């Protein structure tokens, strides 16, 4: 279980760094605003007026969501050997599933305000989810040993 926590921490942190860097470098969005945007999934627009409290909630939600992604794959990989035998292929497929679930189910059902269509973000986000999926698959295989 320690390895699941370590994988979660590393991936959630890397994902936050990626998103904060992308939005800050291209559009000048401060990291605090990105964290509040994550919190807005629960709180809606009031998250942006919540200061440090909603920033911390955003961080917490980021790590909880990543734990759910890592944990679900880890549990499944204990029962389905193919997930450990083919982490590259299955990880890419898992990344696609994660992208679709997050962007076409979770976000539309959340209280987060709708964001503008940014093609470079969509492409970057798909690539990031593929990397996360493969990392989770290899991490689960490593944790099984």
UniProtKB/TrEMBL annotation:
Q: What is this protein called?
A: DUF1440 domain-containing protein
Q: Which residues cross the membrane?
A: 55-76, 88-109, 121-140
Keyword hit for Transmembrane: yes
Q: In the record, what lineage is assigned to the organism producing the protein? A: Bacteria, Pseudomonadati, Pseudomonadota, Gammaproteobacteria, Lysobacterales
Keyword field contains Transmembrane helix: yes
Keyword set, alphabetical order: Membrane, Transmembrane, Transmembrane helix
